[in-house]
Amino acid sequence: MIEIILDTETTGLSAEKDRVVEIACVELNNYIPTNNIFHTFINPEIKVSTDAFRVHGYSDEFLSTKPKFKDIAQDFINFIKDKKLIIHNADFDLGFLNNEFKRLNLKPILKSEVIDTLQIARSKFPGTGNGLDALCKRFKINIELREKHSALLDCQLLSKVYIELIEKKELTLDLKSNNEILNQEQKFIKNGDGIIVKVSKEQMEEYKKFLKKNVSNSFALD
Question: In order of start, what are the domains of the chain with their CATH numbers?
Answer without folding.
Answer: 2-219 (3.30.420.10)
